[in-house]
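Follow-up to my earlier ticket, as requested here are the two runs.
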Amino acid sequence: MIFALVLTIAYVLYYAVVIAKDLQGKKGRTSSAEEVFDLEGMEEEESVEVSEAGDSFQVGNTGENQPGPSGSDANDFPEQPEEAPRNAAEEKAEQLKSDLLEADITSENGVTAPELHELLEGKRETLFKIPMKVTRNEL
């Protein structure tokens, strides 16, 4: 009981000193709401065009707004779509898609329509047929 009383008094004194220091320290200090940032080491940045297309955004110039060739140069060459360079992930995804289309799918332990109806109606408990050998009057 004495220990709890001494500890409580110590806590009250400690918190009284801390609160008094906080109140006295705030009077002498002046705080400003102004923040100062050092910008000397920053490089000049170039702005980038951002355009909205449907549900997405496109960052940078994709070349769509560039002027086309002028005069006779436009008629000399037929327009051919340029293939964008493909990275390894896109090539792997394309290979997986083509492999999925070529996969040989076989069904194992398939059921016929009457067996399926029996299973759905609860007349049959399992897909597997238990081989039973019926023997009568044999020892």
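Run two:
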Amino acid sequence: MSVDAIVHTEFPKGYTVLFGADGKVIMTPRSFEHSSTIKSMQYDTIVSLGRHAKITSDVCIDFPADENSAPDLAILREDARREGKRYGFEDVLLISEVVSTSSARQDYDGCTAKYGRYGIPVYLVVDPYAQEVVVHTQPTTTGNIAAHTHRYGTGKLPIPLADGRTFTLDLDELPRPEPETDAR
């Protein structure tokens, strides 16, 4: 899809639209679970790291080779500086993606490989449907050496950051999907 076509396209309301380096356009419907999970993680960053911690949510971060990303949550180094309007991947300490039913494989596989390849120290896959958080660390050129799964409802999860601070994710407070009811 050309830049001109993208600029002149009206995408449906309620969808997140991502543009891949390979020319793919990915449209994902936003869900209550997705939104409330991001909100919960943002709250945990404020409690853990302070009100003025550098965090982003759905904000584009520059990666090489036009593989830019707008992760659901990113924690940046305190001394991070924007180049133009964006931060670079070198300033990222942690990225978290919240699984949507339509993006699960990308979040578990594609993003794990990408964020590992670029040396992101911590990558979290937060899955409200499986009610688990997978913490990926020790990045390599093909992914990550370590991956540890933590279940929702198992307390506070301290996650050391490369700059010496600790982000604590409260696994008891992550929102769980509500059961669907019949619409009448």
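The only thing I checked on run two: The chain has a mean pLDDT of 86. Let me know what else you need.
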